Amino acid sequence: MNAPYPTTTLPKPCEQDPESWYAPNVTRERARAMCSGCPVLGACAEYGIARERYGVWGGLTERARERARANKGLTLPLHPRPQNQPKDARLARDLELLHDSEELLGRGVGFEAVAQRLGCSRHGLTSARTRARKHLAEAS
Ligand code: SF4
């Protein structure tokens, strides 16, 4: 599915308060209201369905996008993984947390909100990120 990242020179509501777009348990009505009036609403919804696991995109919640993917027979692209990733379950989870937290932090979501969004305590996320970074450094 070809769904490019939605760009515009006009202001987008999510740029003002990115954390709200990644809060857990956003309702369908709330998601619609948050994105209403955005100049790239439709394109953003398509992009979000094709690419995004977390947050509100194009007025659609995570669950709404999962349903849309299921209806269209789509799956999300796999996260890029380091070569030779070990099968150890905790390390795999640490690497996933590092990847996902980097993605959300890069979008301007605060660390506390990222930890909450990924189902970790602040300390738990910090530890997981440290273990994952150590592994990556040793593997390189
Ligand atoms: S439609 Fe997309 S770009 Fe616009 S406010 Fe919503 S999430 Fe942001």
Automatic annotation (TrEMBL):
It is found in: Cytoplasm. It comes from the Bacteria. GO terms for cellular component: cytoplasm. GO terms for molecular function: 4 iron, 4 sulfur cluster binding; DNA binding; metal ion binding; protein-disulfide reductase [NAD(P)H] activity. Its cofactor is [4Fe-4S] cluster. Residues 13-67 form the 4Fe-4S Wbl-type domain. Pfam families: Whib. Its main location: cytoplasm. InterPro entries: 4FE4S_WBL, Whib. Keywords: 4Fe-4S, Disulfide bond, DNA-binding, Iron, Iron-sulfur, Metal-binding, Transcription, Transcription regulation. GO terms for biological process: cell redox homeostasis; negative regulation of DNA-templated transcription. Belongs to the WhiB family. This is 4Fe-4S Wbl-type domain-containing protein.
